[in-house]
Every structure is written in C-alpha cells, then in structure tokens.
Specification:
Strand order of the largest sheet: 2-1-3-5-6-4
Shape: globular
CATH architecture of the largest domain: 3-Layer(aba) Sandwich
Helix content: 25-40%
Number of domains: 2
CATH topology of the largest domain: Rossmann fold
Number of strands: 12
Order of helices and strands: EHEHEEHEEHEHEHEHEEHEHH
Number of helices: 10
C-alpha cells in the first residue's frame, strides 16, 4: 500500500523536503509520496488524527509548529525531549504518536568537522525560535562550552536559559558591539529566507577567522552570508543540515539509511538557483 508523508508549516512553499524524500523513495523503490501541508494552529489535531488513521505514515514539522505540535503527541523521545522541539512525527507499532528531533543530528553531521574539539571557542546563536533549542544542544554535544544567545525579544532567551542553564544572554542592542568576540556565529532566525528581510546591523566587526553558519538554505546565500563570504570569512549555509536531518527522518520512517550522493546534492542546488 502506498505510504503518504508530508511537511507541515506556515509558510511552507519554500520547502525542498518533497524533492529530497521523493528522490530517496525512487532510489530505494519505496511506494510513497511526500507533500507540502500548509496548516494553521487549529489544524494540528486533524493532522494527528490522520496519522493515527494511517492517512499519513509520518510528517516533518517546521516553523512555527516545532513546539506547538508537542501537546498533540502521545510521546516525545531522545533529542526532542532534551530540546522541547519536534521536527519528525511517526506512529510506532503500538499506535503511539511519537515526536522526534532530527535537527540536532543534522547540524552535528553537517558541521562536525568545523567546530568539534573547540571547547574554548565562543559560540553565538542569533535567534531564539523553533530551531534554536536544536542548535544549542548540538553545539553543546560537540563540546563547545561558551555558548551565548541573543534575540530581538529577550523574553525568549530567558525562557531558553531555564532549559539550558549554561546559556549566556546578550541583549539585542549590544550585539553589534560584541559580535567581534565570537569564533562561531549561527543564524537560527528565518531572516534572509526567500530573500526576505535580513539583519540590519553591521557584521564587518567579526573576527577574520570566524565561522558563520546560516540555518537558512533557501536562498543558498542570504545577504549576510554573501557579505561575509566576500569579506573572506568561513561561511556555511543550511543545505547540509537540511539534508542530514532529512536523512534521519527518512530512516525513522522507512528503516532505510539513505545515501547522500552527488546527484541528490546537484538536484537540490538546481532547485535553489
């Protein structure tokens, strides 16, 4: 019987998840489809009902529902429990709706070689939204001890510090003057998504050897990313993280560990040009 998967979010049209998963379905001869499901808060119970009924075999979850979905699930496990953030939902053999987090794995797998074994380096996370808990946990797992966070609304940072008490908070208004202190900067906001609004402060004060990681992958290069790249900084977009988190979701649903090959990467890049 044909399986149905999808991704829920709002806005969601920019997502390349259907391209990613359909490529692997074809490669591994799995009879399945994957669709974009734009929903509002009121639609979440219906999505869960459809999973329980077997209409969907699983869904990915993106902004703004990574936390909101949790109250509708039977159980969250592993990194989802540690972060309070879910991006993958599936039904187990006991008809229990499980929430998992593959974003943590995605970020670790994508940038492990760049930031592992750097315990004394200072990392700054910009943004305290849906993906931020996953970013915090992943870089903590990679051994970074000095982790700072900033957000336009400080209340969200305070909320995250209650969960991750090792966090240091920098007020948004102090960001431009203090950005020179960091070795690793991660954009965990949606700024720059689909060439929309970007940061309105100056990144010229960053260290020459800074590593800048953007969790946005559409476009491949946001305005800030382009600027830092042109200035000779080491920059990474969110595409690798996106592929690796999808790889783990695919495994959770299908018990197949899909290969990330050149053809897939080229296909995804072609969709972003």
């Amino acid at each position: 019987m044909r399986k149905n998967f999808g991704i829920i979010g709002n806005p969601i049209k920019h997502s390349l998840s259907p391209v990613l998963h359909k490529y692997w379905f074809k490669k591994y001869n799995i009879d399945a489809d994957y669709s974009i499901i734009e929903v509002a808060d009121k639609d979440l119970p219906e999505i869960i009902k459809k999973i329980k009924q077997g209409d969907y075999s699983g869904v990915n979850v993106t902004l703004p529902f990574k936390q909101k979905i949790i109250n509708h699930l039977d159980k969250i496990v592993n990194d989802a429990e540690l972060t309070g953030s879910v991006n993958t939902v599936h039904l187990d053999n006991n008809k229990t709706i499980i929430g998992e987090n593959t974003d943590v794995y995605g970020l670790q797998a994508a940038y492990l070689k760049e930031i592992e074994n750097s315990p004394n380096k200072k990392a700054l996370i910009i943004g305290a939204g849906g993906v931020s808990p996953s970013v915090i946990l992943s870089i903590k797992k990679l051994g970074i001890r000095n982790i700072f966070i900033t957000n336009r609304t400080n209340e969200k940072c305070i909320f995250l510090k209650k969960k991750f008490n090792f966090l240091n908070i920098i007020p948004w208004i102090e960001l431009e003057s203090k950005i020179k202190n960091f070795d690793i900067i991660i954009n965990a906001t949606s700024l720059g998504l689909k060439n929309g609004d970007d940061f309105n402060f100056n990144f010229s004060n960053t260290k020459n050897e800074v590593i800048y990681i953007d969790t946005v992958y559409n476009p491949l290069e946001t305005k800030t990313f382009k600027y830092l790249k042109e200035e000779g900084r080491k920059v990474f977009n969110g595409l690798d993280m996106f592929i690796y988190q999808g790889q783990k979701s695919f495994y959770l649903w299908n018990k197949v560990h899909p290969e990330i090959d050149d053809e897939l990467v080229e296909l995804l890049n072609s969709k972003l040009k």
